[in-house]
Amino acid sequence: MNTLKLKYTLLFLMTIVLLSCKQEVGFKTNHEDYDRYLAAEPVKTTSKYYELWDSKIKSDSLQLLSLGNVASEYNRFFQGTGDIKYLKMAEQSLQKAVDIAAVGKAGYYRALARNYISQHRFKEALQLAEKAREMGSGVKDTQALFFDVHMELGNYEKAHAYLDSIGNMSDFGYLIRLAKWNDHKGDLDTAIRFMEKAAAKAESSKNKSMLLWSYTNLADFYGHAGRIEDSYQLYLRALQLDPQNAYAKKGIAWIVYSHERNGEEALRILDSTLMKHQSPDYYLLKAEIAEFIGNEVLKLEALDNYYKKVQRKGYGDMYNAYNVDFYIDMEVHEKAMKLAKKEVENRPTPESYGLLAYSYFAKGEKEKALEIVEKHIAGKTFEPGILSKAAEIYKANGKHDKVKELKQELVGAIYELGPVMEPEILRL
């Protein structure tokens, strides 16, 4: 009997050891892969190319080519630094080009429209797309622009029609939009397949901007699909191309935080990035990681930095969505509600309605929140962040079947939602 008991005890201990090993097995990042990129120099906000074209622009300049090239450089500086002033300076150059162009005006309208999309001025971008169409040149480029704008505005049927109009499986621009459309529909596998084709197209062309765009976006898709190592490797490939790429560094920080649950290392990566890149939302991620590791002082400091950054006038409506959540967390409900309504007016998407529903919910108006969820969100989006808020609203209104249904999806999206959200999802 004692021998049998010993046998089962040993078997039990071996099982525990095997389970422990199994939990430890899995992909892990290596800081030696990315440390050299964290030490990369800040993005230079000038270049010989920029200075050449800038020198040709005077207050009364008719140098259209110079205006377009300088605007392109300003946009590159904005991407590198996160400083809104460069996006606004690009806008000024493009607006001047639009004003004086007699030939090629459609192209300048499209470039300015894309600048407005970056600024979340979507209705103005749509007006510029319509003006570009009136010019008649660059029809396919204008149709692609219409797809982009209508996707942002939530006009999905129109967007799909424009996507069909530019169908060309050998075109990079079509492939990335096809990937975006399938992601919107919730078909992540198909979205990945088309984004992989786009990446292959970028590799054959050796176009650096196309490569960076496809690598970082495909890395995001891989992360959503649970392919963490593939995601990590693509962020590293992006950094090999552009050692200063803040988006790729942020992506690695997220992997370290959400997959490995190593908040301190994630903060080290993020702090290094913030020394050179100043996008306000990076401070919100810092606040979230600080909350995860239990550092309340650091969290409040990061939130304070975020608030100071977004007060800059140039940001306009770019951070409305972030600000709604920020004000809800700070229990400044009237400001949150006002901004959520403005965001719905600017872009009536399920995402915007999700902000409005949660604003009502935070104020205690759970029935109104449920009405918005059922009318504008249910079955219209697959974004875990929106669905988690919808689940809370369903739960408060006693819709337990809906909660159960959403919880299954959300548990599978814990990596995307982050460790701070995990207890909330499990409590649903």
UniProtKB/TrEMBL annotation:
Matches recorded under SMART domains: TPR
Database matches in InterPro entries: TPR-like_helical_dom_sf (IPR011990), TPR_rpt (IPR019734)
Stored Pfam families: TPR_19, TPR_8
UniProt entry tagged with the keyword DNA damage: no
Record carries keyword Chaperone: no
TPR repeats: 212-245
Keywords: TPR repeat
PANTHER family reported for this sequence: CELL DIVISION CYCLE 16,23,27, CELL DIVISION CYCLE PROTEIN 27 HOMOLOG
Annotated protein name in UniProt: Tetratricopeptide repeat protein
